[in-house]
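Our working data are protein records whose layout never changes between entries. Getting from the letters to the C-alpha cells is the skill we practise here. To make this concrete, we reproduce a full record directly below:
***
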Amino acid sequence: MGLEYMVICDQLEEGRTGYGLMVWDGKQLRVFRDLCGRAEPVLDLARRCNLGRLCPEHFREVVEDFLAAW
C-alpha cells in the first residue's frame, strides 16, 4: 500500500474548525492538527504532497514551510 496524505478536520474548544494533515500507509504515521481554519489551503497541500509522492521524513519540513508562508 502506498502513502496518502489526507486532510483531517477537528472541532476545537474555541468553537472553531481546524484543518490538519496526516500521512497514512494503512496506519496513521504522522499528524499535524489545526494548520489552518480553512479547508482549501490544506486540501491543496495534501494534493501537492500526494502528487509529489512526498517522503514522510520530509513531512515536518513541508508543514513548517506551509505555516511560514501562511
